Amino acid sequence: MMTEISLNQYRIFYAAAECKSISKAAEKLYISQPAISRAVHSLEEGLGTKLFRREHRGVTLTEEGELLYGHLKNAFTEISTAEERIRELTESDAGHLRIGTSAVLCKNMLLPYLKGFAAVHPKIKITIECRSSRLTAEMLESGAIDAALMVRPADPSDIGFYSLGEIHDTFVASPSFLSGIGYESGRELPPEEFGELIGRAGGIMLLDKTNGTRRHIDRFFRENKIAAERSGIIEVSGMDMLIEFALTGLGIACVIGSFVEEDIKSGRLEEIVLRTTPDSREVGFAVPSKGEPSRSAKHFMDFVRGYTPPPQ
Q1: CA distances, 303 to each of 98, 107, 115, 228, 300 (Å)
Q2: Residue closest to 166 by CA, chosen among 101, 253, 256
Q3: Measured between alpha carbons, how far is 153 from 176 in angstroms, rounded to an integer?
Q4: Which of 227, 257, 282, 294 has the fewest CB atoms lying closer than 10 Å?
């Protein structure tokens, strides 16, 4: 009757066969040489045959040992493959988070949250879709993204919304530029005088028409009868570029106030004081209110609710 043989005995035999040495197998498996020898001897007794020839420089396999080694090599390769597949499945099961937002909000508001979330959940794959505000809302509604960083819509009934606070649009330029077109620093301008200032500036720099901020400012101009288009509008594709152009002294730019706070405090930019200002807008993370959110989306929203981004 064959003695019961353990998987560990096979592993020890396999290591010794691979290393062609009892001492090297002991180093590889972090066990003593006598333990290796006892395990091999026990295996040989259990199988009723010799597996190794002991030689001066190590060990060599007998014919039976070669047969066993070949089968074990295939078996342990299959085990390694299975372990790797399990790891892959475990990592993929961690989830895939798809977030949509505008290019403006992505850099200035989303990135700090992503950095913090990735540090806590490194296995969750993150995909960012930078689209216009309108397209982002459509993607959220269709399920193409799990969450969106966006301005709260007029009818938020179909989404769950976690507010990050309000953003305010403001008009800035370099102090030297404003002085050159006759703006009296700190003086509050009614809409008609602001329109005249834009005329003296040779126009105004705004984001392009695909951006939600631009549509918001266009409505502000119409409601206050500010004929900005008559003076000329320079369209810029990104908020960073708008700010840089204003800092360079190229003209008046409409930007989100919180993005230029430090520039205003340092005196590099000056804010034009208006009697009537654009309405503030609420920004936050939105998720569909219908259906079960993905596990990664749940993890993300739980993280957002308890996270305060460090000051930039």
Answers
A1: 15, 19, 12, 42, 5
A2: 256
A3: 38
A4: 227
Residue entry with tokens 């995909």: 127
Q: What are phi and psi of 154, to 5 degrees?
A: -60, -35
Q: What is the pLDDT of residue 1?
A: 44
Can you read off the two tokens belonging to residue 112? 């700090």
Radius of gyration of the chain (CA): 34
pTM over 0.70: no
Q: Between β-strands 253-256 and 169-173, what pairing exists: parallel, antiparallel or unpaired?
A: antiparallel
Lookup: tokens for 290: 């219908």
Query: How would you write the chain as a 3-class SS string?
Result: CCCCCCHHHHHHHHHHHHHCCHHHHHHHHCCCHHHHHHHHHHHHHHHCCCCEEEECCEEEECHHHHHHHHHHHHHHHHHHHHHHHHHHHHHHHCCEEEEEECHHHHHHHHHHHHHHHHHHCCCCEEEEEECCHHHHHHHHHHCCCCEEEEECCCCHHHEEEEEEEEECEEEEECHHHHHHCCCCCCCCECHHHHHHHHHHHCCEEEECCCCHHHHHHHHHHHHCCCCHHHHCEEEECCHHHHHHHHHHCCCCEEEEHHHHHHHHHHCCCEECCECCCCCCEEEEEEEECCCCCCHHHHHHHHHHHCCCCCCC
pLDDT tens for the chain, 312 residues: list them: 456 788 899 999 999 999 999 999 999 988 999 999 999 999 999 999 999 998 888 899 999 999 999 999 999 888 888 877 766 555 545 678 999 998 888 888 899 999 999 998 888 889 999 887 888 888 888 889 999 999 988 776 678 889 999 999 999 999 999 999 999 999 999 999 999 999 999 999 999 888 888 999 999 999 999 999 888 999 988 888 999 999 999 999 999 999 999 999 999 999 999 999 999 999 999 988 777 778 888 889 999 998 888 766
Q: How far is it, in rounded angstroms, from Cα 228 to Cα 205? A: 10
